[in-house]
Design brief:
- It is a single chain.
- By secondary structure, this protein is an alpha+beta fold.
- The chain folds into 2 domains: 64 residues, Roll (Structural Genomics Hypothetical 15.5 Kd Protein In mrcA-pckA Intergenic Region, Chain A), CATH 3.10.290; 201 residues, Pseudouridine synthase.
- Strand 13 and strand 14 form a beta hairpin.
- Helix 2 packs across helix 3.
- It is globular, with a radius of gyration of 22 Å.
């Protein structure tokens, strides 16, 4: 082996800058790559480039603000579950002054909340936030196969041929797309019918566009599951809760991350968090298309099947017993 080969075999020192920033909760890894390309990040007073590696001795600044170079900040992994109402946008600052999903959730002591995926303004349901950018990146990356389940109310006649088309795949403006599963659910009147459908990606308005490709319109859309995380009926619209240690550990293992202990919280901090939760318990104003009581039909519980998936409404499985044994279905229950 010559010297050149030996040199190439040496592992580079430090970690990639975007990965460190993501783990510190500054943003997702993809977002950090964009910031580095825009020249917003400096390392040791020099503008960083993609591929820059850092260690604990390097001084990092973002937009001129120095970051605490503390290993403890690297290991913050908190996760919030939020039941998003209609009318909120998934951005921190909206130029039109509309309510955002960040208005109701508490500010973390270290880092910042990163939303795991997005929901458009008219879509309600499950939205997750984390302080760990690496966790957010893996949960959103297609290679980790995190499926998303939606409850959909469709306006228009739906035929078996249309269902088959959506399962086989159709061509959208940004490429082919399909549902990996579609189940009819009881409820609705006339041409308004409920379905549960599953996609493997988080493309912009993908569920709505898939149905629209068949000549029907989505009149209501709610996300009820993201990977192993289900929206439970005890989390009313506009409310949030923080995952416990066991739940975060399960979610971490799903994407190949080692479990990290949740940061210790003082009694004063816990009391403040409880006050914030009680504050968000106030009723949320109904959206334009929301009917009283309609939300009760689109929740998925962690202990039993949702009403839409009642025994009489489902097609028999090709294998297994009549009970809902899904391989490998993982359910995260509130602690």
């Amino acid at each position: 082996m010559n010297d050149k080969t030996k040199q190439s075999a040496v592992t580079p020192a430090g970690e990639k800058l975007q990965k460190v920033l993501a783990r510190m909760g500054v943003g997702s890894r993809r977002e950090m790559e964009q910031w580095i390309s825009e020249g917003r990040v400096q390392v040791n007073s020099r503008v960083a480039k993609l591929g820059t590696r850092v260690d604990a001795l390097d001084a990092i600044t973002v937009d001129g603000r120095p970051l605490k170079n503390d290993t403890a900040d690297y290991l913050q992994r908190r996760v919030l579950i939020y039941n998003k109402p209609d009318g909120e946008v998934c951005t921190r600052n909206d130029p039109e002054g509309r309510p955002t999903v960040f208005d109701r959730i508490p500010r973390p002591h270290a880092g910042r909340w990163i939303n795991i995926g997005r929901l458009d303004i008219n879509t309600t349901g499950l939205l997750m936030f984390t302080t760990d950018g690496e966790l957010a990146n893996r949960l959103m990356h297609p290679s980790y196969q995190m499926d998303r389940e939606y409850a959909v109310r469709v306006r228009g006649e739906v035929t078996e041929e249309m269902i088959d088309n959506l399962k086989r795949g159709v061509m959208l403006d940004d490429g082919p797309a399909k549902f990996t599963d579609i189940q009819a659910a009881p409820g609705g009147e006339g041409f308004n019918r409920w379905y549960h459908c599953v996609v493997m990606e988080g493309r912009n308005r993908e569920v709505r566009r898939l149905w629209e490709s068949q000549g029907v319109v989505v009149s209501r859309l709610k996300r009820v599951r993201f990977g192993p995380v289900f929206l439970t009926s005890d989390l009313s619209m506009g409310r949030w809760r923080e995952m416990g240690q066991a739940e975060v550990d399960i979610l971490s293992k799903e994407v190949g991350l080692e479990p990290i202990a949740l940061p210790e919280m003082s009694l004063k901090a816990k009391e403040k968090l409880e006050r914030q939760q009680r504050k968000t318990a106030k009723p949320v104003a109904a959206g334009r298309n929301t009917r009283r009581g309609a939300d009760k039909t689109v929740y998925t519980t962690s202990k039993e099947q949702p009403i839409e998936f009642a025994k009489d409404s489902r097609k028999p499985r090709s294998t297994g017993s009549a009970t809902h044994k899904k391989t490998p279905t993982r359910r995260l229950r509130p602690e």
